[in-house]
Structure formats: C-alpha cells, structure tokens
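stuck on whats below:

***
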Amino acid sequence: MTTQRSTWILKVQCQEGEHFVPDEERRKHWAELFEQLDLNKDGRIDMLELEAGLAHRGLSNGCLKKIVETGDTNQDGVLDFEEFVEYLHNHEKQLKVMFHHVDRNKDGRIDVEDIQHCLHIIGVNVSPEDATRIMLSMDRDGTMTINWSEWRDYFLFKHLSDMEDVARFWKRSMILDTGEQLTVPEEFSEAQKKSGYMWRQLMAGVMAGSVSRTGTAPLDRLKVFRQVHGSSDFRGSALSGFKYMLNEGGPWSLWRGNGVNVLKIAPETAIKFSAYEQIKTVMRGHDETRTLRLHERFVAGSLAGAIAQTIIYPMEVLKTRLNLRKTGQFTGIADCAKQILQREGAAAFYKGYVPNMLSIVPYAGIDLAVYETLKLSWLNRNTGLSDPGVMVLLGCGAVSSTCGMLASYPLALVRTRMQAQASVKGSPKLSMLSLLRNIVTQEGIAGLYRGISPNLLKIVPAVSVSYVVYEYMRIMLGVDIEGRRGGKEHG
C-alpha cells in the first residue's frame, strides 16, 4: 500500500461517527476508490474525473453533479479526500436506514415482496416478474435476495435522499424512454400526478420535441418532396434537393411547414396521455391496482395514439401542404387552411387518414418490441445494473425507431401522397390501394421507400437533440433526470 493511501485510511479512521462505523476493509475500499477516481493525482476529484471513473455505472450528469454539490462543503467545485470520505460516510448511513426500511421482516435480506411494497409507497404497482427483474439486477450471490452489501454497492454513487427516490429509481429502469415522443406513454404514480410532476415532465417532452423537429426540419421537408414528387420530378442527391429548395425560396424555405409541425406536439401529447390513462382504467376494470403487462400497454398506447392522431390529423395535412408550397402560395397556416376548405371541402383535411391509422400498429409494435428486446439483452449482459444509462437508451431508441419506421414507411408514403394530391398539378385522385399499385408498377418496390434516406439521416440527431433538451428542461422545470424535485426540497 502506498504512503498516500495509508494516510487516507488514517484520515477515515478519525472521521467515523458514533452510530455507523465502517470496518477496516471498508475504510481501505474508500481510499482505493478515491485513488482510482483522482486521475491526475492532485488530491481532488472534479466532475470530469467522476464522469470518466464512473462511466461504467451509467450515471447521468445530473446525478454526478448532485454528488459534488452535496459533498463539496467548502464550495470550491471539487471534492478533496476529506469531503469524499464524509460524503460516502453520510451516504452509507442513509442507505443503511433505507435498507432497514425496505427489509420489513428485519432478516437482513430484501426479497421480491419487499420491492413491490417499496414501489407501492409512491403508487407504483409492479408485477412479481418486474420486481424479480429488479431484484436480479442487484443480486450478485444468486440467493434471489438482496443483502446489505449488495444494496450498498449498487446505490453507492446514486444520489438518493429518501425511500421515494429509491422507488422512483427502480421505476425509471422499466419505463420506455426513447428521447423522442413516446410510442407507449410513461407510467406516472398518483403522487406524481397530484404534485404536478407529470405535467412538468410532459412539458419538458414538448419542448424537446419542438427543438428536435426544428433542428431536423430541412431533412423532413426534403423527405416530403421526394415522397410526393417521386424519382421523375425530383432527381438527384440530398444536396441537389437542398439546392432546389434554396433557389426556389431562400434559406427560410427549408423550414416551411415546421410551424404547424411544432404546434401540434402539445395537443397531441396531452390528448395521447389523457386517453392512455382512461384506456388503462377501462382495461383494469374493477382491479384498479392491477399492473398492465407489456402487450396491454402496447394496445393502450396504440389506441391512445390513434385517438390523438384522429383529433389532430388536419394539422398533419396542413404540414404536408405547407411543406410543398411555392413561394407566395399561402400567407400562413390560417390562409392554407382557408384555401383547402374553400377549394376541396372539409373532407380534404382527412385525406390519407386510413393509411396513417394502419401505419400506427406496425410502427408502435416493432418500435416497442425492438426497444424492449435490445434493452433486456443489455441487462442480461450487465447483471449488476438495472439502469442501462443514457447512451444505451439512446442507442436502443434510435435502432427501434429505425426498425419501426422501415416497417411502416410504405404506408406513410401513401398517406403523404394522398394528403398532397390537390397541391400537385394534374395529380389523379387515387385511393390507397390504387396508389400502392401505381407506385409498385411505375417505380418498383424501391418506390415504396422513396425519400427514406433523409428520414434515416435525421433519426440520430433527432433522438440526441431531443434527449439533451429534455434533460435540461426537466432541470429548469424543477425535476432532474432521476425524477426528484430540485431546489430547496432536497437541498
């Protein structure tokens, strides 16, 4: 052992409290941890060193920031050895109290029923299978229970303040979070609904979607042009497509249709989540506490999505028409709606509705199935963690969104062409099946995927931008990424 480490262990021995005195092995472990995290060996640990040293634990920046803020008693922005030891000492005392609270029969081990009861505290009812999955992520000795050392090591660097934080952390490991608009909405507890946490989180999602869509709007407009005009009228690479749009309407033309695309996020999100809650209530019947299984959540989510799409569908038509408009054709969203109503009637606002509804099920089903498969595959390979972390979740979201989009794209293409029929000069008014037949006959199977390249290009930046904005908006709205209130409530 080095002289420096021996000195650190002596310091630990002098700093122990009366009621929680770690043994010699624990004190040695703290000293080794500090030495491993102190990459530049200057006797202090900063945020960058924490990020590098704890990267394998899948912790968010918000969680690491809380560790530094809580342990940094002299407010210099870093943790010296004394502060590091004091933080771990106090944190392990908290974890010990939490462990005894969850261990209801006081046998020194936490089982599946204990986990279910802990989650029930904040109104989250999970099935025995889900509780078992949580337990297995922490059980290292194969006893199908969690002892004190497994509990302590698992939560050592997770900034938890009380039992609700423990329950929320477990809950977060099971929700579907792709960084974009959710295919199957997140579950919220009764406490979260009453506190306003749910609406703050939804607002963060709306803002994230708005920034993400605005950032990728030029690619989205290019996709619509290629879908509608096909290979005969809109040849060339993505670069030539952008050049065409710039020549026709200048730089701002790249964002045509983005206004209505952003405006529809808030009502669609609110309708979807409200419908989802009502559908869940109906599916549960008399057993109000029953946990919906994955396939039931999928059905409820798909139905909620269909209801939301039905109500806001006229805005989808407006978005397509504004995407395709020539300079000076419409003065704005209201003028576009007025002209469609006058020339084509109210029915025009639901053109392409059938293929749009048909595309929801394959997209939602494949997106959810691939996401859950990838996530569970990661969990099986990393048995010490129940939360895959930001990068893994973003990767799962990007891959699952791509697979869902590939499956539903032909229907999305037909929907867009039907929405645009009156705006394309000389375009025949064909039904969904007639359009499909014409595309395959004239352009081949590849024609069903016309415009898919810009759509594929926008997935990774859309998911990434959405997540970054989502995280910062949650912090600004008073809820950090682990789901706790910020500010004075937790210091």
User: Anything to note?
Assistant: The domain at 190-490 is CATH 1.50.40.10 (Mitochondrial carrier fold). The chain has two domains: 3-172, 190-490. The CA atoms of residues 83 and 398 lie 40 Å apart.
